[in-house]
Design goal:
839 residues; alpha+beta; seven-stranded antiparallel sheet; six-stranded parallel sheet; 17 helices; 22% helix; globular
Length: 839
């Protein structure tokens, strides 16, 4: 291999031909190589080589499974593949047999130093593609519409591929090529990132789940503000909408008639094995389900039997139980907020009333109250949602409020048979999942949505639904929406053009309404890890990068960190990855906080009111509620890309990112748990978990050599220990971490100003303190710094200065001649400060 002294491949060394990536390309695949001149005219990565791959089958079908290649010419790979209907998780391997079903992204390190290749199966107007390995080491390409009415013999651009010397250049080039081929999405670099991403937030979900109330929301933001870390961004998650199950099951749905106590102990819904339902028998049944039935192999005898029992024999009982234990079979029956958000007078408080005031609730509410025993509470003249949004903005300094809703309104969609929403023409449809999806999540065959169905409107009527709902939210002072439950759209496209076609039209309607109602591009996409969703994010700029933060599922916490980091390699080209909320007082709260600090993602928690760890939060959040967000997306360093950092027993995860002036590398020991594709659960490994070591060097930051002067040296400071080292580009500092331990290193280029060497490192109290440094320049032996924040600014200097001034006022400073640490106090006022240092 032709490798220079920096470890990078020379221009003529990396792969120029698909034969350097795949061997034995299948007979039903046509490869169209892009001409180098044409590539250079349209791509920023000019040394990459790209190609489009077309399906050329021998018969027309709605689902094709063809051989892509007999083998892969790579030493190792990392992939993003769906692990559930809703989510992806990373997978590592070295041959075709290691590629899991529903693989949507494949990055390969090629043999003989031939560079890197990125393969992207696409989702177009009618067909969606995925990759899947076989036990013989072959790699199959699956192309399907998921609709018997939509078949073809020839499909263009079912996959695109790029090769380059850098793995990140290969990814970017492949994404550019996919965007040109599909035209249904835009790259993140061309989108508006909402301003809410740069302030600290609070979400109601893990604080209250669906028991969220106006009082709970007020308490949630109030206690954070009182602790000095105010939330300026709030997500009112699931629990505010007017939803009910089907008529036959409403007696079981107790929560639809009550006002929850915001001070009650919150229990997570029984959606994982770590959250069993209350009661001995119920918990016993849940244990049997999770350990024996949930992981039944697709098309096994057990799977067939349980599917038949759940969908036919026990159909009504299952719907009754689901209606009583969760909201998954509930459907929207009115656009306005539910009874919990209608202001109660003093006499009613948490009691229920038979009255419904005409001035507030729609006609449908009144009719249902007269003909049934829903016992909806009375309402005051002011809509409750508008009232709580106004209050938290006025009294607690919140700037941005988002409200949750599902892509099709709610989990169960829109009610097909209720007067108030009849104009949307919803039709009850039962999800039809592809064989690939059922192979990775067999339990979707008896999921509540599969059994209970989804009220699905047409793309034209759902566009009207979005406009009406977003009109209401916008008029209530809401600034954006978190749109959940997206990936089921592909299973509901039958008789409507197929999954990809239906998804494209629904996303277009959603984004049009968001653009019209929320001008800051206020949308977070969630549960959206099918390419039917991802490749339709035309203007959407934010999307969740992983499965949920599960407070009580110990095995999930380290896996969550791996998922957000590795999925961001793929998703970060199209959206700003949202690494999800967390709880600061959780046992793993500091681990999650450190990840959010360097992720370049929105930073928000879901703490229950009064249950906070302010020692953690104050390292993330400034007193104003601003956060020092990195300017890019957190990604694994090159030496971690192809390592399974969750279960190889030795590797630490390293994540790099950039700030305005300096860079950051974080190190995590997240060994000890993983997502099991056989059990379909998070699983813990044998304990004790061994410490993990890592070597951190400036070159870990992608592109740092090209952005620095020739022969530059760098100053590296650890956040937790405060150690400062001056390193050459390839010199390292070692760190040893216990299980769930972490460290963050700020890396700044060493500037030479006359006889003085200097670097501005950042605020000592903040996890990503380097994000506070906005600019550094020197004139002679003077250095000028612009820094945001307050408190101590840490710098490195080769000698003690003669004068330090902050905002024109000379201030004392502390200098340690042994380490070169120079500490300058910016004072107690949070602002942009000008610092002048003289020697």
């Amino acid at each position: 291999a032709h490798v220079d002294d920096d470890g990078a491949m020379t221009r003529d060394a990396f792969a120029h031909d698909v034969a350097d990536v795949f061997r034995g390309i299948g007979p039903h695949v046509e490869v169209v190589r892009d001409a180098p001149d044409a590539e250079a005219a349209t791509m920023k990565v000019t040394d990459a080589r790209t190609s489009a791959w077309n399906l050329r089958a021998d018969r027309s079908a709605s689902r094709h499974v063809v051989r892509l290649a007999a083998s892969m010419a790579c030493t190792k790979f990392v992939a993003s593949a769906r692990c559930k209907l809703w989510w992806m998780t990373p997978a590592w391997g070295s041959s075709g047999e290691d590629v899991p079903a529903e693989t949507q992204f494949l990055l390969m390190e090629l043999e003989d130093g031939a560079g890197f290749a990125c393969a992207l199966p696409t989702s177009g107007n009618i067909f969606r593609s995925t990759l899947e390995g076989t036990s013989r080491g072959e790699l199959n390409l699956i192309v399907e519409s998921n609709c018997a009415d939509e078949s073809a013999i020839r499909v263009d651009s079912v996959m695109v591929m790029a090769t380059a010397r850098s793995p990140y250049d290969a990814i970017h080039a492949a994404m550019e090529r996919a965007q040109r081929a599909l035209g249904t999405f835009e790259l993140l670099e061309n989108k508006k990132i909402p301003l809410s991403a740069d302030v600290f937030g609070w979400c109601s979900w893990d604080a209250f789940y669906t028991d969220v109330t106006p009082t709970g929301i007020e308490h949630g933001v109030q206690t954070l503000r009182e602790g000095g870390t105010p939330a300026r961004f709030v997500i009112i998650d699931d629990g505010w909408q007017s939803v009910l199950p089907d008529k036959s099951y409403r007696k079981a749905s107790v929560k639809d008639k009550t006002i929850p106590d915001p001070d009650a102990v919150v229990k997570p819904p029984p959606t994982t094995s770590a959250a069993p339902p209350p009661g001995f028998l119920a918990a016993l049944a849940a244990s049997f389900y999770w350990n024996r039935l949930h992981a039944s192999k697709f098309r096994s005898f057990t799977w067939h039997v349980f599917r038949l029992l759940m969908n036919y024999v026990f159909f009504n009982m299952v719907k009754l139980v689901v209606a009583g234990m969760s909201n998954f079979n509930h459907r929207v029956y009115a656009v306005k907020a539910n009874h919990k958000f209608q202001a109660l007078d003093d006499k009613m408080k948490r009691t229920l009333s038979q009255r419904v005031l005409d001035k507030t609730l729609p006609k449908f509410f009144r009719k249902r109250n007269q003909t049934s025993k829903l016992n909806l509470p009375a309402a005051e003249l002011v809509d409750g949602l508008e009232k709580v949004v106004t209050k938290i903005k006025t009294d607690f300094g919140v700037q941005y409020v988002y409200c949750w809703h599902a892509l099709l309104g709610y989990w169960g969609g829109i009610h097909p048979d209720e007067e108030n929403v009849a104009k949307y023409g919803a039709v009850l449809k039962y999800p039809r999942h592809t064989p690939g999806l059922l192979s990775i999540e067999p339990s979707q065959a008896w999921d509540p949505l599969t059994i209970g169905g989804v009220g699905v409107p047409s793309p034209e009527t759902i566009a009207h639904f979005y406009v009406v709902m977003h009109d209401y939210l916008s008029a209530s002072g809401v600034d954006g929406v978190k749109v959940d439950a997206q990936a089921v759209i592909g299973a509901l496209g039958y008789k409507n053009g197929g999954g990809p076609s239906f998804a494209r039209r629904v996303h277009a309607a959603l984004e049009e309404s968001v653009t019209a109602h929320f001008p800051d591009n206020g949308i977070i996409n969630c549960m959206c890890h099918s390419t039917e969703n991802i490749y339709n994010f035309k203007s959407s700029a934010v999307a969740r990068a992983s499965d949920d933060f599960y407070p009580t599922n110990e095995a999930s916490h380290t896996v969550h960190i791996a998922n957000v980091v590795y999925n961001s390699i793929f998703m970060g080209e199209i959206v700003l990855p949202d690494w999800d909320m967390f709880q600061s007082a959780n046992e793993s709260g500091a681990l999650h906080a450190a990840a959010r600090a360097i992720g370049g993602c929105p930073v928000y928690v879901s703490d229950h009111p009064g249950q906070h760890d302010f020692d953690v939060l104050r390292q993330l959040v400034l007193p104003s509620g601003n956060v020092l967000r990195c300017r890019s997306t957190g990604r694994p360093t090159r030496d971690c890309l192809f390592k399974d950092v969750t279960r190889d027993g030795r590797s630490a995860l390293k994540v790099w990112n950039r700030n305005y002036v300096n860079s950051v590398v974080a190190v995590f020991n997240i060994q000890g748990a993983s997502w099991s594709r056989t059990k379909n659960q998070f699983v813990s490994h044998e304990k004790p978990i061994a410490p993990a070591s890592a070597d951190v060097c400036p070159r870990d930051v992608e592109g740092i050599k090209e952005r620095s002067i020739e022969g530059a040296r760098f100053v590296v400071r650890s956040h937790r220990r405060g150690d400062i080292r001056v390193l050459e580009l390839k010199e390292t500092v070692s760190v040893m971490l216990a299980h769930k331990d972490w460290e963050i290193f700020t890396i700044a280029e060493l500037l030479v100003s006359g006889a003085v060497e200097f670097a501005a490192l950042g605020l000592s109290a903040m996890m990503n303190g380097g994000g506070a440094v906005l600019s550094v320049d020197s004139i002679g032996t003077d250095v000028n710094i612009r820094a945001y924040g307050l408190g101590d600014l840490v710098c490195y200097a080769s000698k003690e200065p003669t004068s330090v001034a902050v905002d024109g006022v000379v201030v004392p400073s502390a200098f340690d001649s042994r380490s070169g640490a120079l500490v300058v106090s910016l004072g107690a006022i949070e602002n942009v400060h000008s610092v002048n240092i003289k020697w």
